[in-house]
Amino acid sequence: MIHDSLDRFQLYNASPLWNQIIKFIDGLDDGTQDGQYDIPGVKDAFARVMTYDTKDAAEGILEAHDRFVDVHLSLDGAEGIEVFERDELEEKESYNQESDATFYKEPVQAGVLICNYPGRFSLFWPWDAHRTQVRMKDAEDTCKKAVLKIPLSALRPTT
């Protein structure tokens, strides 16, 4: 997991592909319509922009992905995201290739709670199970966010 300022996003990779992702992110704001968007110049990458009400953590879904790296960006409002070590969790639903998701049972141990708000990003690798849409104390209930789905294969170095 990476949780950092968007101002430092470019420091995590200097590849032309990463530059295309940055260009796409620069075009997002709280006026971006909800929907799914292709990320130009990055094969099989896309983004989903969505608006929803946050909720108690116990109501959330705990998931991890095998083929995609998730980059979560809040465009308006804030949400909590709980992060867990995938290998320490018990599966609730086994991996579904179509949705690229494995779902997990409620863990006994606490996860790491991070707060995503405009100007911050969170990046989740396949080993990071995460639960999004968590209501944060003293934050508005409504959150608008973008989730960029970047194929893990696109981020691997080529030889």
Describe the structure using short key phrases.
45% strand, 9% helix, six-stranded antiparallel beta sheet, 159 residues, mainly beta, Jelly Rolls
Nutshell version of this structure?
The chain has 159 residues and is mainly beta.
Task: Write up what this structure looks like.
By secondary structure, this protein is mainly beta. It has helices spanning 16-26, 152-155; strands spanning 2-5, 35-38, 46-53, 62-64, 68-76, 79-85, 91-96, 101-104, 112-116, 120-124, 128-134, 142-151. It has a single domain, classed as Jelly Rolls (Sandwich), CATH 2.60.120. A 6-stranded antiparallel β-sheet has the order 1-10-5-12-3-2. The protein starts with a strand and ends with a helix. The mean pLDDT is 93.
> So how many helices?
2
CATH class: Mainly Beta
Main sheet record: 6 strands, antiparallel
Number of strands: 12
Q: Roughly what percent helix?
A: under 10%
Indicate the overall shape.
Answer: globular
- Mean of all residue-level pLDDT scores: 93
Number of domains: 1
In the CATH hierarchy, what is the architecture at level 2? Answer: Sandwich
Binned strand content = over 45%
Helices, strands, pairings?
Layout: E1 2-5, H1 16-26, E2 35-38, E3 46-53, E4 62-64, E5 68-76, E6 79-85, E7 91-96, E8 101-104, E9 112-116, E10 120-124, E11 128-134, E12 142-151, H2 152-155
Antiparallel strand pairs: 1-10, 2-3, 3-12, 4-8, 4-11, 5-10, 5-12, 6-9, 6-11, 7-8
